[in-house]
Write a structure and sequence with these properties.
single chain; 400 residues; alpha+beta; 21 strands
Length: 400
């Protein structure tokens, strides 16, 4: 049920409610802070980024009801700037005020986080964000609620989601764009050496961007510093309870000027099971290392067909590489394999082989959307099964 005849009238109503109340009015202290934050900004996106991240990182998510006038009325910028706490609409409102103080054209927008919105122009919203008009005339979505200590200005966990801008001329219901999987890559590489007595030593390099970066970074920013070393303990102990390791790269998780990069060096005594002329072991990267950061691996792919659309957390590109140096005169048994598939929004490729005393392993899985149609299931299933097929697979080495 709705009292609005169309989305455009709902849009102008939302715009009017907040303009009449004065939600985004600037004042001297706010203007001064805005100017100080923009010192050194190189272009419009840099300026927008500085303001968005300042509001995201410096305004605590915490709100209480202010009584009559709550709901779609955004609290005024003076209260938000002074208190530095609030819910999504307060963070969005403060960012809009700062953007306007910087000379940008900015508005509030409503969305339904994590869910679709039906075509009826009713109150189907639970989240508030900001939009800013760029020099080329396009509108850029900003979400200071979801991006504290995140490199994105907008959370791609909300891609393919409807939103409505509160604008003076009235706006129709829009949809947030798909974010390319390469914007959310997770790359894990292991370079290792296996000795003749079964000891394994090596180095793991982890690189992440976008929401993959955010998922790893949040493990550090959400807890006390003395617990940071423990974040990867469970991952490493999954490899072996006999493992020794050290981690570099977790010292500055609050610096999101560059993508997160972590290096782990390790040593595992007696990693491979030894026989008279055989060794048996499982590769690290292909065996589900850091699988908790790849939500697509949680899908039950035993279903041959799906009756409805389905969704993952985010689009992503996963690249797994492993190179293991093995002792001379040893050969991997049945190790050659190669597969690939390329579809409209889903693709995968990979191989494993032996070159002299080096075992090579590579997988790349590209998942191009957050929300998939049921017709995408077969390709999605194949990509997930392809990655899972290497997990738990033993490598048998035979001595020549």
């Amino acid at each position: 049920i709705s009292t609005s005849s169309n989305w455009e009238s709902k849009s102008t109503w939302f715009y009017g409610v907040n303009e009449d109340y004065g939600s985004f009015e600037t004042f001297p202290a706010l203007t001064k802070k805005t100017k100080s934050l923009l010192k050194g900004a190189t272009n419009e996106l840099d300026s927008i980024g500085k303001l968005t991240h300042w509001v995201a990182d410096n305004m605590r998510y915490s709100g209480i009801s202010m009584g009559e006038g709550e709901g779609y009325t955004l609290h005024n910028s003076k209260m938000n700037y002074t208190d530095r706490c609030g819910v999504c609409k307060d963070k969005a409102g403060l960012l809009i005020a700062m953007l306007r103080a910087a000379g940008f054209e900015a508005y509030a927008a409503m969305t339904m986080a994590g869910s679709r919105i039906d075509s009826i122009p009713a109150d189907q919203f639970n989240h508030c964000v900001s939009v800013v008009k760029l020099n080329d005339g396009s509108m850029k979505i900003l979400d200071p609620t979801w991006v504290p200590f995140v490199r994105e200005l907008w959370s791609s966990l909300e891609q393919q989601q409807n939103y409505l801008i509160g604008s003076p001329e009235g706006s129709g219901l829009m949809e947030t764009p798909v974010s390319a999987p390469e914007h959310h890559y997770l790359e894990i590489s292991n370079t290792a050496k296996l000795s003749a007595n079964g000891d394994l030593s090596g180095s793991i390099l982890i690189k992440a961007e976008g929401q993959s970066d955010a998922a790893i970074r949040r493990k550090f920013t959400s807890q006390a510093k003395h617990k940071w070393q423990q974040v990867f303990e469970s991952e490493m102990l999954r490899i072996s309870d006999n493992i020794e390791f050290s981690i570099k790269g977790i010292e500055t998780p609050y610096d999101y000027s560059e993508a997160f990069t972590i290096t782990i060096t390790y040593n595992v005594a007696s990693y491979a099971a030894l026989g008279t002329k055989q060794m048996l072991f499982t590769p690290i990267i292909g065996n589900g290392f850091m699988k908790s950061y790849m939500s697509h691996l949680n899908f039950d792919t035993s279903l041959e067909k799906r009756e409805h659309a389905f969704k993952d957390r985010c689009s992503r590109l996963v690249t797994l590489n492993e190179t293991i140096e093995i002792p001379a005169n040893w050969t991997a048994q049945d190790y050659e394999d190669e597969k690939s598939f390329e579809g409209a929004s889903i693709s995968y490729s990979g191989f494993k082989n032996q070159e002299l005393t080096r075992l090579n392993f590579h997988q790349e899985i590209s998942l191009g959307k957050r929300i998939y149609e049921r017709s995408d299931w077969q390709n999605f299933k194949e990509a997930v099964d392809f990655q899972k097929s290497f997990a738990g697979t033993f490598i048998i080495l035979n001595k020549q």
